[in-house]
Amino acid sequence: MKRVVITGLGVVSPLGNSIDVFWHNLCLGIVGIGDITHFDASSLKARLAAEVKDFRPEEFGIDNYTARRTDLFTQYALAAVKQAMEQSGIEGKVAPERLGVYVGSGIGGMGTFLVEAKKMFDKGGSRVSPLFIPMMIANIAAGNIAIQYNAQGPCLPVVTACATSTHTIGEAYRAISHGYADAIIAGGSEATINELAVGGFMNLQALSTETDPAKASIPFDKRRKGFVIGEGAGMVVLEEMEHAKKRGAEIFAELCGYSNTCDAYHITAPRMDASCAARAITETAKQACLSDKDVLYINAHGTGTPMNDSAETLAIKLALGEQIARCALVSSTKSMTGHMLGAAGGTEAVICALSLYHGIIPPTMGYEEKDPECDLDYVPNQAREIRANVAFSNSLGFGGHNGCIALRQFC
Predict the structure, then answer these.
(1) Could you tell me the pTM of the whole model?
(2) What pLDDT sits at residue 391?
(3) Is 358 an active-site residue?
């Protein structure tokens, strides 16, 4: 088994479109939630979202020709990958056939789907764009990234709803550790703040209908009533450790564990005994050789839905035991970024790497009222300067998909 490290990070997010701005705002507890501006949401009960602000494709080398031929989720992906690749400095230093791309999306190009569906209903199928399919399909961000960087190695997009990019990173880790690639670009992207997605999630009663942005996404708080939809992309460059060291790359953290389980229970609700989510965490902890001497930070899935947060809390306690669970620092950064769906796990992996690298645990914002079923330390409302040496990132997706990855401070 080869060791795998993170050498590049990239984000496009409701808190900023560069790593420095994103991390600064995250540590300050800035909430990136506000009124929906992408469309007129005045007739909806759910009117808040965590939108990406001030995104300009040309700033990331995406010219007008490419922008016209790609959905926004692909543009977000390309922008985040550009940051990660530049920070890593790996371009041109790995053989094309040894460079892979594992980038997924929970939903894909829904914006494109809406535009072309309207054309069809208004003017007939003959007016649908010939680029409709290659702009919409959920694997196309990975395809465009591979083309951009001549990545001829393994390419495996994943679609597991909100667990998507935790699974892409975990599967990429396995591929490198077993010798199938020297480096893999991994993460996820999403751009679904539109009438169809918001209407669907809202009518599923999954979204918060709060009108105050500071109180809308409040994971683990007793008053929580749903999640706030977000968008963006989170990407990492994973690299075989000796390959990275040989070229003198800066290493942010080591990826040291991953597990993937399924509740096999319900299409949207978590298994309330939390047994399968707990098993994902347990198996990841074993791979990471977690001990009671480690200082553990857990970036929780923590969506702010009533059942999810209580089930995840139970899963953490079942997996780690009461003593370790109560010593762990748990926070949900979705309180600031909203729920970025297929991009959530990638963005939260970036957060875990930065947390270990800088010795700061980001907070759970908006936390005020304790819930007896959510009784861990959720780092409420203010970041803490604590040097954790291990970080877990949990993701739990519709369909019962569970994923957990472990990062360890590199030394």
Answers:
(1) 0.98
(2) 98
(3) no
